[in-house]
Amino acid sequence: MAKKRINRGIALSLLAAVLLSGCSSSTDVEQMPQDELHQSLQENQQSQPSPSAQPTETSAEELSTVELATQVGAVFAAELGFDQSQRISGEQLAELAQAPTDTLADVVVLPGQCEAPLEALNWSPAQLGTDVARTDFTNGAGNVTGSIEVAELDGRESLEEHFRTVLTMRTECSSIKLNWVEFTETLKFSNPAVEAVESQLAYTRRGNSATAQDTVVLIQSKGEYVAMVSFIAATSLSDDTINLVGKQILDSVLAQL
Fold it and tell me: Which residue has better confidence, 65 or 180?
């Protein structure tokens, strides 16, 4: 039971949370298709598609501002090779709005002072309790998944608090041990160094092959909205290409706000 909590609490909530459902073409963990990703990015840069391209499935007039922004982001992600997507709504979106609790039950966190900020990292724009939309996406291999989440701000207190938590994880808690009864995992947090992004975090999780993963999270506010673009993979995301992809998707979302 504790392992299930940590999977949702740490691994998924850093992405803001629910796993892709039904949009991956494969559930097998393979090597990240760097060549495909680089090729898609290169083709995108050469063709220079408009970041404000309209979604094709739903008329813009039928979408709220946050829905339109996430759908435009999904269209742009498809241009970069992440051509399978799914809108999150209903019960899944409602669940996402609830901050997970007791995610570190039965786990010893070292250093101990990092336990509170680590649990506080379980944050999502959906928790702001305002108008929110989310779309998950993946590549053809289904081994790198991402999400686009946009919410309307009702004050910046929660957002600024999360920014402080991210900064703490990158500085005071950049290396953490999670001690389970059966094994130990290591979490390492860092700054992916993406230009002109308000808050950003990269982290690796190693020690147990079943939960090994890399995550990158980019967050930017604009006016009365905040947008988050996240990636997760079972293999390394340290290649700078994924940061550029994330920044381009984020910019396409912000262009609609």
Answer: 65
